[in-house]
Amino acid sequence: MTAAATQDRMPAIYLSHGAPPLADDPVWPGQLAAWSADLPRPKAILVVSAHWEEAPLALGATETVPLVYDFWGFPEHYYQVTYGAPGAPALAESVRKLLRAPGMPVTDVPDRGLDHGAYVPLVEMYPEADIPVLQVSMPTLDPVKLMEIGRRLAPLRDEGVLIIGSGFFTHNLAALRQGGIPAWSAEFDAWGREALNARDVDALLDFTRKSPAGLLAHPRTEHFAPLFVTMGAADAAGELGEQKAVIDGFWMGLAKRSVQFG
């Protein structure tokens, strides 16, 4: 890789995307806005969200279509949010070329808009909605396979593409209680911080068994899984060690830890 390519390479990030009420939080929107202001401006954004699992791997709309309001029971104004980012047909074609292979078909879902795992953080990070965005499904929750997908997507970073894995560092809504930070959420967050700092990839890949309260923090693992796409995109460039936590703390008892590689 040339020095110029390394200098121009976009970071790869994993962010906790919260929920629609994130927009009303007194702190979190500003944290996301400050993060994006500190990043190089992307030419395009590729998002892998916890809220789109589909196999074979699918590409979302490559032109602007309505958002997917994939949540229930919220006040009506959250269903009025719009985010008319341009589609990214050129990025979609690059993704097809990088991923399509024997045993890994790639399909298109041209009417599938951005879900809240994509647009909720992007509204705060890039509110002008003037950067092309492509959402890609998770075809599996297997961490090893997701890391491989990330590795194969890694060349996009040298083309100005910001790769975002969008989940939530802890996510067990059923186990939340009124007020306070549950012990399982705090324990998993502390363990995850140490594992990331130590570059303990093996522990992270086997997080349901090697972490304290792993199955309580993630009874279903879809909100941690996007981290592995991000890690794969970093690993391909030898940047797993260039990791920093940009956002930490808790929101409604859930860890909002968000990290940047590169």
Count of DSSP H/I helices: 10
Q: Summarize the biggest pleated sheet.
A: 6 strands, mixed
Structural class of the secondary elements?
alpha/beta
- Summarize model confidence as the mean pLDDT: 95
- What's the count of strands? 10
Q: How many whole angstroms does the radius of gyration measure?
A: 17 Å
Spatial arrangement of strands, main beta sheet: 5-2-6-1-10-7
In helices, the fraction of residues equals: 25-40%
How would you describe the shape?
Answer: globular
> Beta fraction of the residues?
15-25%
Low-pLDDT ranges? 1-5
Quick recap of the structure?
The protein is of the alpha/beta class. It has helices spanning 3-8, 28-38, 89-99, 116-125, 143-153, 183-197, 201-205, 207-210, 214-217, 226-235, and strands at residues 12-16, 44-53, 57-59, 106-108, 133-138, 161-167, 243-247, 250-251, 254-255, 258-261.
Q: What would the keywords be for this entry?
A:
262 residues; alpha/beta; six-stranded mixed β-sheet; two-stranded parallel sheet; 10 helices; 33% helix; disordered N terminus
Can you put this structure into words, describing what you see?
It is a single chain. This protein is of the alpha/beta class. It has ten helices and ten strands. The strands form three sheets. It has a six-stranded mixed beta sheet with strand order 5-2-6-1-10-7, with helices on both faces. Residues 1-5 have low confidence and may be disordered.
